Amino acid sequence: MKFLFFAPLAWVNGRWQRDVRLSVDGNGHWGAIEVGASAEGATALNGPVIPSLVDAHSHAFQRAFVGLAERREAGADDFWSWRDRMYGLACKLTPDQARAIAAQLYVELLKGGYTQVCEFHYLQHAPDGSAYPDELAMSWALADAAADAGIGLTMLPVLYARSGFGAEGLRDDQRRFRTDAAWVRHAQQRIASAGRPLLNAGVALHSLRAANETDIRELQRLVGDDDLPVHIHIAEQQAEVAASLAHSGQRPMQWLCDHFQLDARWQLVHATHSIRDEIEQVAASGAGVVICPGTEANLGDGLADLRGWLDAGVPMSLGSDSHVTRGIVEELRWLEYGQRLGLQQRNVAAAPPVQESTAARLFELMRAGGAKPAGFEQWGLARGARADFIVLDRNASGLLGLPDEHLLDGLIFGTQGPAISEVFVAGRQRVTQGRHEGEENIAAQFMAVMREL
C-alpha cells in the first residue's frame, strides 16, 4: 500500500524545510521527499514533522525492574550490586511474561519517539538453564511483542560464555545466558530468515569480560563479510577497565582495537571510560559508539567523553538500555546536561558555526548514527529509507510560541510533558494524539505479569 503525506514544516537534510511532500512506496520506504511542493492529493499532517530515532541498545526484560532498585540495601550501591539484584528477575521470566513486558516497553518507546529498537538479547534459556524445545523461544517472544506494538526490531543474540576476565564458565545465576559463537550465528540466521515484517538480526558479544579472544575470533569468522551489525558492551564501568588492565595489560577499547580489525559494522555500547588514544583508534576503524545517558546516570557509570567522540567524528547513536528512560527527549537532554554538569559549561555539543544549535547537532548525529546499529544504510526523511516519522504537537509545553527555527531546541530543552502527537512506522500510523491503539490491553497484560513477579 502506498501513502502520500504533506507537511507544512519538516526536518529534512538537517534543517527545517517548508511545504514538504512525502511519498511512501509499496514497501514502506520513502519513494520521494519533495520540498516546496503542493499538498494536492496528500494527507495533511497536523504539526511539524521530524524523523524518529533508532533505540540502539535495549534489554527489554529490564523494563520490569524499573523503580525496584532505587533503595540502598548495604553500605554502598553501584552497578555491580544492581546487577546481582537484576539477575533475580532474569532467573524467573517465562517467554509469555517476557512478551508482555516487552510489548509494554515497545509501546512506550514508540510514544517516546523511537520506531526501531536494537534488542541486545542474552536471556535465552529456561530458568534452570536448559534449552527450550525451540531454543529461540525467548527471541520469538520479543519478536511477537514488537509485532504487537508495531515497532521495528533488530534482534542481537548475544555470545555469553564466561563470568569475567580469566574465568571458566558462568556463575549459576547466569545459567540462562550461556551461548557460544555457533549458537549466536545460527540464531541470527534463523531470525533473519523468518520473513517477519519489520524484523532483522545482527549479533552481539556481551563484553570482553564474557567472551575471550577465541570466542570473538570464531564469531567473526562465522559472520565473515556479511553486512550485519556487531554490538559489544565495553568500558561501561571503571572496575571493568581495571580488570582488563590487570588481565591483559590494556584498557578494553585498546585491547579490542589492537586484536581485531573493527569496521563500520561494530557498535561499542557505552564506551564510557576512554582515553584519547582509544578514541583515535575507534575513529580510524569506522566503528560507532552507542551512548545510553539515562541508564549510565541511573547506574552511576560515569560520563562519556562526548566532546572527544564528537571531535573525532565517530558515529554515535542512542540507547535506552535498562529503560529507566524511554523517550528521545529525555535521553538527548541527559546527554547534554550531564556534560554541562561535568564540565561546568553550556552547549557542549554545539559546533559553531556549522550547526545553529546544540539540539540540532545532537539530533542529526543520532539520526544518522542510528542506521548502522540497526542494520540499515540510512535513516530519516530521505529517499530509500524506511518511512518512519514523528508529528510534533505545536501546542505542547515548550513548543508553544517558538519560532520555527527553534523548535528542536524547545523540544529537547524546554518541553514538560508529551510533545509527540503522532508516530508512523513504514508509513503506517501507530500513535494518534499521543495514544497507541493497543496500549490499554498491552498495559493490562503488563500489570498482570508484574503482579505475578
Write a compact overview of the structure shown:
This protein is of the alpha/beta class and 453 residues long.
SSE layout:
Blueprint: E1 3-12, E2 15-24, E3 30-35, E4 43-44, E5 49-50, E6 53-58, H1 79-90, H2 95-111, E7 114-121, H3 137-149, E8 152-159, H4 181-192, E9 199-201, E10 203-205, H5 213-223, E11 230-234, H6 238-248, H7 252-259, E12 266-270, H8 276-285, E13 288-291, H9 293-298, H10 306-312, E14 316-318, H11 328-343, H12 358-369, E15 389-392, H13 407-414, E16 420-425, E17 428-432, E18 435-436, H14 439-452
Parallel strand pairs: 1-4, 6-7, 7-8, 8-9, 8-10, 10-11, 11-12, 12-13, 13-14
Antiparallel strand pairs: 1-2, 2-3, 5-15, 15-16, 16-17, 17-18
Helix pairs in contact: 2-3, 2-14, 4-5, 12-13
